[in-house]
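Q: I have 207 residues here and want to know how they pack in 3D. Can you give me a structure?
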Amino acid sequence: MTARDVANALGPYLLVAVLACSWALTEIIQTFRSDLRRALRNGWSEVLMGINGALALLVFALAHSLSPSANPYLLALVAGVGWQALLRTRVNLLQPLNPTMGEAVSLSLSDLYGRLQRFCWEQINQSLLSGRIRLLEEAIRLPVEQLERQVLLFAHASALHPPDQVEAYLEKLRSRRPEEQALALAAYLLSQGGYDFLRERLKTMEK
């Protein structure tokens, strides 16, 4: 078997794995967008992407065995993009002969995957917490006025956060105690700007 034959044989599997891992990567980006760099470096992110890839490859292998004459790359594209539809199915493990005896014993693949996904997210979140708390503690030591100015600068520099809405939010905060204001302002910068953004701004303000 030549190198070309090996590449043709493995190509569809590689396509499935890339598409499935991209799906998992999108989920991680949406969930941990404020601390994405550290989240992607976490081992549990790799576990989640690996599980997605493995499940999609299993679906592709099953589909390929049922339709060996089908175009493998087309089949890989369908499996890589559409394998999540399988997660929404419910597999009946035991169907009662008499319908009046109760419901069938079933297995929800969506529930199983959802639990596994939440477990991985919890592990990623736990690994990020200490660094985020340390950053907030550092930020709330600064005067409230300085934090408020950073929020205003962020709002006016951002293309997605209208300054009018941010200023209305700041006006509501001014009725709170200074400690609560400082924490809310620091949390806003962390959640909206992200971990790296707040760390960079703190370094700038400390100079």
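Q: Anything worth noting?
A: The two ends are 64 Å apart (CA to CA). The chain is about 75% helix and 5% strand.
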